[in-house]
Design brief:
Elements lengths: L1 H11 L6 H25 L4 E8 L3 H20 L3 E8 L1 H9 L6 E4 L3 H8 L10 E12 L20 E4 L5 H15 L5 H12 L2 E5 L2 H9 L5 E5 H9 L5 E3 L3 E11 L9 H12 L1 H9 L17 E3 L7 H17 L8 H7 L2
Helix pairs in contact: 1-2, 4-5, 6-7, 10-11
Length: about 350
């Protein structure tokens, strides 16, 4: 910087005849000095701020576990201060907000279809592959003592049950629950008609929708409904918070696979290294230990201390997300099931204790 200033002074001080040329050159050099200073600032030890969007059930996992540990590790390694802002909500809603310009640098989604949505919206580059950070089977949550005697997904079709459900319009958990319900009817004989029939039978008992898995669990905690299908991880977290409930692990159920992705359209050159480091941290030993502490199974869905699932299945066994989302969510659920829903106001369900 001192060398540039000295050159400026020498050009300007050469006399009146060269003054105009000197002023032009001075302006050019001043601009170069500004850029040079910005580059040094961005590549030095300047503080970094990262914005992370994550689906609803991960709020305490990340705010209490992942973010503090990663910030400490990053600052110890680089000497640079790091601030992470976390935004939490229904996975589908967050994907829509990012496509509309929300400033997420990293997104944690309930499933990979929401990453595909960002690629269609040109927020994530096609070559950018989402990383699966963990999995959790879809389970049934019911009242203490399991008064309805629920044992599997088929039992949710019994007449007289009042079911809560995460809304497939906004919630990734809603999508995973639909896959679990459909798969329980489809997989025994690979019969699509049987899968659709099972789905319709269960949804005849759905009385209340929550915009996210966490919202549906909150309604259950407040007394609404007899049961709901949700993530094993969130069910265990609710039990640890003191919610009186029983967890029924169906012998055949889908395992939900959660993903992380860098939002290419938002992340800057100075933010990308820390964004990538966060994804790597989630996949590494320290990050996996934290996620496991909050009851998320590892990406292979193994792990010690978790109840075994007799017949787990993945979305690929139903055709993969591109096919399932089109055929099952958009065509079957949205067009055939949603218009026939017989929902009751939440306040009425809460007042009656149903």
């Amino acid at each position: 910087m001192k060398r540039i200033r000295d050159r400026l002074l020498s050009y300007i001080g050469r006399g009146e005849g060269c003054r105009q040329i000197g002023v032009v050159i001075a302006l050019v050099l001043l601009g170069a000095a500004t850029v040079y200073g910005q580059v040094r600032l961005s590549s030095g030890r300047a503080p970094v701020r990262l914005v992370v969007y994550a689906f609803s059930t991960q709020e305490e996992v990340f705010t209490q576990g992942v973010f503090p540990a990663f910030e400490a590790a990053w600052e110890a390694e680089t000497g640079r201060d790091l601030t992470i802002d976390g935004i939490f909500g229904p996975s589908g809603t967050l994907a829509g907000q990012i496509n509309l310009g929300a400033p997420a640098d990293v997104a944690i989604f309930s499933h990979a279809q929401h990453v595909t949505n960002l690629k269609v919206g040109r927020r994530v580059q096609e070559r950018n592959q989402a990383a699966t950070i963990g999995c959790t089977p879809m389970v049934i949550v019911t009242r203490s003592g399991n008064p309805a005697g629920l044992s599997d997904l088929a039992s949710l079709a019994r007449p007289g049950l009042n079911l809560l459900h995460a809304d497939p319009r906004s919630s990734g958990a809603g999508h995973w629950a639909v896959l679990a319900e459909y798969g329980s009817g489809f997989l025994p004989a690979r019969d699509a008609a049987a899968g659709r029939a099972r789905l319709a039978e269960i949804w005849r008992n759905v009385r209340l929708l929550g915009p996210s898995a966490r919202a549906a669990m909150t309604l259950f905690e407040l007394g609404a409904g007899d049961a709901l299908i949700t993530y094993e991880q969130d069910a265990i977290l609710a039990r640890e918070r003191g919610v009186p409930l029983e967890i029924v692990v169906p012998p055949q159920t889908v395992v939900a696979e959660h993903v992380a992705v860098i939002v290419d359209d938002n992340v800057t050159a100075s933010e990308r290294p820390v964004a990538q480091a966060l994804v790597d941290f989630l996949l590494g030993e320290a990050g996996q230990e934290i996620l496991g502490r909050y009851h998320l199974r590892p990406p292979d869905c193994g792990g010690d201390g978790f109840q075994a699932v007799a017949q787990p299945f993945r979305v690929e066994e139903l055709g993969g997300w591109s096919q399932v989302y089109r055929d099952l969510i958009e065509n079957v659920w949205q067009q055939q099931i949603e218009p026939r829903l017989d929902l009751e106001p939440a306040i009425q369900l809460l007042e009656t204790g149903e």
